[in-house]
Structures are given as C-alpha cells and as structure tokens.
C-alpha cells in the first residue's frame, strides 16, 4: 500500500460531547498518511471542542451555527493536503481506511467512499448508496445493502460522511455557498459529481462507523431543508429546467414566495452560471441515467416546442 499520500481530514462538530475526542483518536490511530486535522466547531455550546489538543489539529470556530456545508467549505479552505476527507465528529475508521480510500481516489480520479456501518454491530453493513428524488423529501439516497461483486464499484450517491477526494475534485464539487443548516449536503456533492462526469466509487473492505442518531441536537425545520434542496436544483440545473419544472411544480409548493425570490439573488445566479459552464451531462441525463425515470411532461412538451420552432426557422431560411 502506498502510504505517502498526505491527507487532510475535515471534521465538523456541533455539540458532540465526548464523541469529538473519540473521533480524533480514531483518525490518528488508523491513518498513516495523515497530515492534519481541521476541526470546525460549528457554534457548539457544550464546550466539546474547548479542550482539543495536538499539533495535528487546527481548530476553526463559527461564532454561530452555519451548517454542515458552510463548515466543510471553511475547513477545506485552510486544509493544505492534496487529499481531503470529510467526516462528522461521531465516526470511527477501520485501520488504513482513509489511506486505502485516498490511494483509490488518486488512482481513479474519483470520490471514494468505504463501507458504512453504525457503531452498533447490529446495524447492517452498507456498500454505497443510490441517488433518489421524491416530492416532499427532496434529493436523497438509499443504502446499497447487498455486497458488490467487485472490491471497487461505481455508485450514484453519497449518503453519510467519511468520503475522500482530491483537492482538484473538491474545487469542482464544493458545496453551494447558500446552503444553510442541515439537509442536502451529500446530495449536493453527488449531483454535482454526476453532472460533471466525476465518478463516485465504493471501496469494499475499509469501514467507517457512524453514530446514527434518533434525533438532532439542533433545530431542523422543513422550510430550511426545502431551501437547501431548492438551492441545489437552482445551481445544478439549466435555467429552463428550473423555470419550467423545479420552481412551479416542486418548490413553489414548499417555500413561500419571498424565500423563492432569494434564489434569484446575484450570488445564487452567479454560482448557477459558473456551474452550467462546467457541466458534462445534460439535464435530461439526470432523469434518464441517474433517476432512471421519465422526464417530466412539462420539459418534454417544451423540448417538442423548441424542436418545432427550430424546424420552422430552418424552413423559412431555406425558402428565403
């Protein structure tokens, strides 16, 4: 195994108690290529990040809770290694888990995610996830439980932290700046990776254990989650797809008009335009290849109308 890879681990924490210390110990004890740990204290009030020591830990503090996406972007901004790991402050890693993922991420130019299991041994071992969308729930993912036939396999979505990518890939799939609080963080990276043609791979064998909680230690509301999913759609899809499908048929039902108007702010529109210039796949591919579902009727009708108009213009040009 190549252990020369230099890894920065970005850990986000909010009121995690002693889990912060346990997660740091797990990263240190099981990662040979570790360069540094960036611990982002996202507005904790329980003092869980106050007594963190070690030359390998850089502590960043948000004066108030900003959310997972903003905290991860902040951590990545100061990380110095060529390989980035994004983790929560309630995870445990098997020996060499991150080294093996880093090696695969480098060799395959991909985002790499190991097996995932709960801290409780009764939880099933999961092998990646499948991207999904459902009205009222937004963009989400379902676990892959059957063991894959090959040690490295292509998957369509992330579902929990503990994944690894190069700095170059992070710069392309970084979290939209307007995401707030909780909701949609893994979906945002997964969808961006799909449109950019960046593979998400599952590495079978190494394991990250995750404390799956029955309730949040912070406030989560449906409007805030819907906002995050609307931001993802606004940034990732073409203007026509947003105006003719996502806005009227999905998010107008979930968000008040004043909130929807914020999605036309200069910051959101600039991020949308920048991402559209980089896309390698079309919006139609989202339904055809990622969801494996029919394209919405409104978009099919619009495509037929555009095609008919183009034919009419071509006919007029020929007759002239």
What does this 3D model show about the protein?
Strands 3-2-1-4-10 form a 5-stranded mixed sheet, with helices on both faces. Strands 5, 6, 9 and 11 form a 4-stranded mixed sheet that branches. It has a two-stranded antiparallel sheet with strand order 7-8. Strand 1 (7-13), helix 1 (19-30) and strand 2 (34-42) form a beta-alpha-beta unit. It has helices at 19-30, 68-78, 97-108, 167-173, 185-196, 222-236, 239-250, 257-261, 266-276, 283-291, 297-319; strands spanning 7-13, 34-42, 57-62, 83-88, 91-93, 111-118, 129-134, 138-143, 152-155, 163-166, 200-210. Helix 5 (185-196) runs parallel beside helix 6 and helix 6 crosses helix 9. It folds into 2 domains: 7-210, Alpha-Beta Complex (Spore Coat Polysaccharide Biosynthesis Protein SpsA, Chain A); 222-319, no CATH class. It is 40% helix and 22% strand. With 320 residues, the chain is α/β, with parallel strands linked by helices.
């Amino acid at each position: 195994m190549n252990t020369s890879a230099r890894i920065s681990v970005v850990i986000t924490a909010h009121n995690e108690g002693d889990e912060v210390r346990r997660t740091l110990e797990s990263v240190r004890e099981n990662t040979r290529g570790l360069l540094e740990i960036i611990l982002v204290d996202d507005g904790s009030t329980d003092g869980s990040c106050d007594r963190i020591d070690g030359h390998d830990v850089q502590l960043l503090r948000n004066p108030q809770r900003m959310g997972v996406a903003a905290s991860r972007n902040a951590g990545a901004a100061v990380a110095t290694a060529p390989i980035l790991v994004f983790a929560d402050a309630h995870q445990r890693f098997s020996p060499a888990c991150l080294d093996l993922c880093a090696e695969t991420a480098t060799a395959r130019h991909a985002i790499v995610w190991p097996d995932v299991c709960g801290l409780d041994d009764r939880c099933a071992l999961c092998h990646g996830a499948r991207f999904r969308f459902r009205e009222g729930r937004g963009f989400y993912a379902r676990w892959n439980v059957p063991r894959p036939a090959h040690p490295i396999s292509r998957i369509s979505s992330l579902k929990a932290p503990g994944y690894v990518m190069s700095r170059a890939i992070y710069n392309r799939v970084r979290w939209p700046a307007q995401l707030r609080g909780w909701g949609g963080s893994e979906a945002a990276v997964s969808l961006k990776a799909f449109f950019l043609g960046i593979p998400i791979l599952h590495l079978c064998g190494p394991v990250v254990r995750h404390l799956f909680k029955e309730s949040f230690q912070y406030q989560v509301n449906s409007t805030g989650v819907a906002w995050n999913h609307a931001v993802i759609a606004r940034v990732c899809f073409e203007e026509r797809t947003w105006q003719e499908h996502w806005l009227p048929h999905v998010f107008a039902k979930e968000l008040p008009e004043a909130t929807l108007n914020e999605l036309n702010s200069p910051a959101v529109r600039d991020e949308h335009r920048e991402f559209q210039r980089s896309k390698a796949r079309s919006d139609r591919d989202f339904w055809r290849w990622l969801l494996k579902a029919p394209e919405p009727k409104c978009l099919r009708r619009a495509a037929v109308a555009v095609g008919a108009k183009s034919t009419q213009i071509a006919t007029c040009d020929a007759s002239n």
